[in-house]
Amino acid sequence: MSAPLNIPFANFGKRPFTALGPILVVALALILAGCSTSSRSTSGYTGPAISSYTAKRSEARSDLRTSRKEAKAEARKLKKLERSATRLERRMERTKSEDKKADLKRKLRTKKREIRSAKRAVRRADRAVSRAERRERRAATAIINAKKRKKAAEERLARAKKREAEREARAQLALKRDSKKNKAKSKPETTVASLFRKDDPSVKFISDYAARVDGKFALAAIPVEKIDKRLYRQQVRYRTKYKAGTIVVDTKARFLYLVQRGGTAMRYGIGVGRQGFSWSGTATVGWKAKWPKWTPPEEMIARRPKLEKWSYRNGGMPGGIRNPLGARALYLMQGGKDTLFRLHGTPNWASIGTAASSGCIRLINQDVIDLYERVPNGSKVVVL
What we know:
The protein is 43% helix and 17% strand. The longest helix has 87 residues. It is elongated and about 125 Å long.
């Protein structure tokens, strides 16, 4: 669960406090403090395991040993053939019979062909050894680099946890100040207890919005207190004519539904295209990408010339925390052609629930990662 936060009470209901209202606020602060430490699922390094690189190095070393043995065997075979050819030449020098000389010449020609073949085999074996040595060096380098990436990821995660702990401390302090103000007020106040009911579906997945490391990038925690809770990822009742596995995007309501069995769906809050840039229709997920490269279309570059440096001609913007496509992207195809519209993450979580994009459907990074894992290529997408 994300850090306890100074949530504006008016956003979540209008039930008046009783005389025990200030006590409930203090109790709620203690509950939130416990939740923030007990249910945190912040992960560490999530790249390939170091053991996988070690296994590759072991395999490379085994291949190198085999290649060296084969190279030595081919070299011994070549030397044996060369010695045999030398013996035949000496016999020819000693032999006076022309018939025997002719027979020895034939044998010598055959032996020389075998020597040429053996030399080619030796060269092939030497090249195989060189390739095996390069693979072994690359595997050893990969282990070193993986250890460095793991250490860097752990350091980023430690910094993210430190920032989150500082945010928790500030939130606790703000909550204490609010509780003191509530004691001094005589007028009724509102309660946020309903937000944390066990049966409230809007907070079931709220712990997923905590800080985490995804690959080589550190995702910061989402300040959920600043987002309407109806935009949190949650499982809802949803009756529709579309089959399970279909993605239905309701641009007016600012929701994306992943249809499930039993009349339910996983609902995600989204940001949609602003007026003049919206798109609707039926498509399929052509392909997916983690931390995708962003290439702004020519029309966008014409409106914003500063984006020229990220154009297709210049190689696009590499994936990363500041990339507009966020942590994941699902590319929509229609009739075998790219629609140029995507379902993607965004570093700008504040745009969720608004019409601010250039036509694409954007989700919170933590939500698009969840959607990416649930949706295979070829899934149907309906944009209303």
